[in-house]
Specification:
The complex is a heterodimer of chains A (about 220) and B (about 500). By secondary structure, chain A is an alpha/beta fold. Chain A contains 7 helices and 10 strands. Chain B is of the alpha+beta class and about 500 residues long. Chain B has 2 domains: about 180 residues, no CATH class; about 240 residues, no CATH class. Helix content of chain B is about 45%, strand content about 20%. The chains are: A alpha/beta (about 220), B alpha+beta (about 500).
């Protein structure tokens, strides 16, 4: 379960200080599917980075289960990200020189598994997203939808508690968008994940159990 | 994963890898070639020096020359003839005289100095020598008695009969002055000394029983010009010496250190320099001890000139000297410059590569990769790029050295009298009279051969890896500074 208490995040620019999150207090129960919507620059990505242990709040606290993400040292935050949080990005963020199989394996690298275990789990994860026969392909040899499937396999292969998706369908056509959303929803349901999706797309947001709206750093229920 | 990722990066970013590797390869090849040629030049210098000073000589000790005072050693050779000297036939008097003395620019010192030198720590062997010049005068002048009588009877102004006699029958004279060098050496078979590098070409060399004998070993080149062979006699300082052997330089085509070699005790006796030597050859127990031995001898003998092989190398002249200067100056600085440029290229390209891969490293950090793991990946890639450059550089360097050895450039080399005489015993092989002894004493052609040594290759590979490590450190530092949120934000 996520718990955010009076979270503020400010960025200092050369001219002024920008408040990306403004006194956000929020609880997200374990296993919930949440959509976050809002205008560009409203603070969606900052909130997602806070939840993903990529940023610390300027003030306030963020906790995931028993872990206080706002005070942990970087090394421990890295450990939390490695074990408990999966990321899916709008631009897929696959490593272009590695194959699909190897890209999925990168998520298992911090866990200290043997290479055989890594290969086996990555192959299973690829099969679960329908790309069992694409393991040897590099990202440039895959379609956008297939690349996002590889990215989802990479996020799920370590069996995280939380899956954070930043505009996961933003670069895809409608048909592919629906396929990807079906895949994410199925994974969420089957694995008991906490799934948090940042999206501009209302069709995507409507599939969530809970919808949040963020504007000028303020979060409201929708 | 480390190896797979590394290989994928190197093979998929070929241009990046190639630029770093080529830069490193050029630098490493240059280092190998310059070092190889430098070693070849050093070998050539050692070869020239060995022909003059002998194999195994690490240090030479001589007395700093002093201004001559009065008659005796160090003075210009002079020949004094009395009225009754010479043989008179057909109105001409033949005069002949031979003198054995040290050169004007050589100072002798007490032979017990050798004991002082041998007592210095880490001196493994030493021997003393006495460098001399034998100058002979041969000439014909008109019969002195006849000339004096004619002058007394007729006088110069009364139109008497013209003077006769002399080699031209008209009262003229003819003189011939010849000179050759003589080295008095210890015949007890010591490990160092001027004859240790010589090769016997005829007859025999000295034996310990020759210490008091009038026997001489002659340099082959001088024997040819002087027309002497084994079994002949050679007059030295007015004493007949039996020629027992002929020697040539064992390490090059150069002449040996002296025209002739005679036992030290005999040289001292014939020259009237009992108990005197002109130089001491010293062998240190190890190359590391040479500096300490030089320093200790200088302390023990404050008035002595103590020179190492490195000091003596400055006495080598000719194109070999030019090559040495070029390699030591231009070659070394060029190597350093190219190496620094290669390192800089590697560092800049690695940092540039990390910057280009901001998204990649940001993603890896987001999925839990530690800074250490990412820095290791970047450093590993850089080290392998350096190693590839090193391997190519070693290959190119070896080809370069092979080309040098196939071209086999010939360098001329000589030891100059000024420098050599400062050492107390060089510049003695030229013959041709005292004037010639102040010019280049021994000139030879040496074929430059650049050796390939394992240490040079190891150093070159080490430098390549060092370049990779330095680039990796900078690239890794850049990667470690990336904050994952900023890295991901920079692409959105």
């Amino acid at each position: 379960m996520y718990e955010l208490k009076n979270v503020t995040k400010s960025y200092a620019t050369s001219r002024r200080t920008v408040k990306a999150l403004d006194d956000v207090t929020l609880t997200i129960p374990r296993g919930q599917m949440v959509a976050i919507q809002g205008p560009t620059g409203g603070g969606k990505s900052t909130l997602l980075q806070m939840l993903g242990a990529l940023e610390r709040p300027s003030t306030g606290s963020v906790s995931l289960g028993d872990n206080d993400l706002s005070t942990m040292p970087d090394s421990r935050l890295g450990g939390i990200r490695a074990k408990e949080i999966g990321f899916v990005f709008q631009g897929f963020n696959l490593i272009p020189t590695l194959t699909a199989q190897e890209n999925v394996e990168t998520a298992l690298e911090p866990l200290g598994l043997t290479s055989a275990e890594r290969r086996s789990r990555a192959a299973t994860a690829l099969a679960s997203v329908g790309l069992a026969d694409r393991g040897a392909h590099r990202p440039s040899e895959l379609s956008g939808g297939q690349q996002q499937r590889v990215a989802i396999a990479r996020a799920l292969v370590k069996e995280p508690e939380v899956l954070l998706a930043d505009e996961p369908t933003g670069s895809l056509d409608e048909a592919t968008r629906d396929d990807i959303m079906d895949l994410l929803e199925t994974s969420w349901r089957d694995r008991g994940l906490t799934l948090i999706i940042v999206t501009h797309d209302s069709a995507v947001a409507k599939r969530a159990q809970r919808r949040l709206h963020i504007k000028q750093g303020k979060v409201t229920e929708k | 994963m480390f190896g797979t990722y590394l290989m994928r990066e190197l093979t998929n970013r070929k241009k990046h890898t190639a630029i770093i590797a080529i830069g490193m390869a050029l630098a490493i090849a240059l280092v190998i070639i310059v070092n190889g040629v430098a070693a070849g030049v050093r070998d050539a210098q050692s070869s020239v020096l060995a022909s003059v000073y002998g194999v195994g000589t690490d240090i030479t000790v001589s007395q700093t020359p002093v201004a001559p005072t009065g008659d005796g050693a160090g003075q210009r050779p002079s020949f004094d003839f009395g009225a009754a000297d010479g043989q008179t036939t057909d109105g001409s008097t033949s005069l002949s005289q031979s003198r054995l003395a040290v050169d004007r620019d050589t100072t002798t010192f007490d032979s017990t100095t050798l004991e002082t030198v041998l007592a210095v720590d880490n001196v493994s062997a030493g021997t003393a020598t006495l460098s001399l010049s034998n100058t002979s005068f041969n000439g014909q002048i008109p019969d002195i008695t006849q000339t004096q009588e004619g002058t007394a009877a007729a006088g110069p102004t009364d139109g008497g009969a013209p003077r006769g006699g002399g080699p031209d029958g008209g009262g003229g004279s003819s003189f011939d002055v010849d000179s050759f060098t003589v080295e008095g050496i210890d015949v007890a078979g010591v490990a160092v000394g001027p004859l240790t590098s010589a090769t016997l070409t005829d007859g025999r060399t000295f034996e310990s029983t020759d210490s008091a004998a009038s026997v001489v070993v002659v340099d082959s080149a001088y024997a040819t010009t002087a027309g002497v062979a084994v079994g002949d006699t050679l007059a030295i300082g007015g004493t007949d010496f039996e020629v027992i052997g002929l020697v040539t330089s064992g390490t090059s085509d150069a002449a040996t250190a002296s025209n002739t070699y005679i036992p030290l005790g005999v040289a001292q006796a014939v020259s009237g320099l009992d108990g005197q030597v002109s130089s001491i050859y010293v062998q240190a127990s190890s190359s590391e001890a040479i500096t300490q031995v030089q320093s200790d001898i200088e302390t023990a003998l404050p008035d002595a000139t103590v020179q190492t092989q490195a000091d003596l190398a400055s006495s080598v002249s000719g194109s070999l000297s030019t090559a040495s200067t070029l390699v030591a100056g231009l070659g070394t600085w060029l190597s350093i410059l190219v190496l620094a440029a290669a390192f800089l290229i590697a560092v800049l390209f690695t940092i540039s590569g990390v910057t280009r891969r901001t998204r990649e490293f940001g993603t890896l950090k987001a999925i839990g990769w530690s800074n250490r793991r990412i820095v290791g990946q970047v450093a590993g890639e850089s080290v392998v790029q350096g190693a590839i450059g090193g391997a190519v550089g070693v290959a190119v360097g070896l080809i370069g050295l092979l080309a040098v050895n196939l071209a086999a450039p010939t360098l001329s080399a000589g030891t100059t009298a000024d420098a050599a005489s400062a050492a107390g015993f060089g510049g003695r092989g030229g013959g041709g009279g005292p004037a010639a002894a102040t010019q280049v004493a021994a000139t030879t052609d040496i074929v430059l051969q650049a050796p390939v040594t394992v240490p040079i290759i190891l150093i070159a590979v080490g430098l390549a890896l060092l370049g990779g490590i330095i680039a990796g450190v900078f690239g890794g530092w850049r990667a470690a500074r990336l904050r994952p949120a900023e890295a991901l934000r920079s692409i959105s």
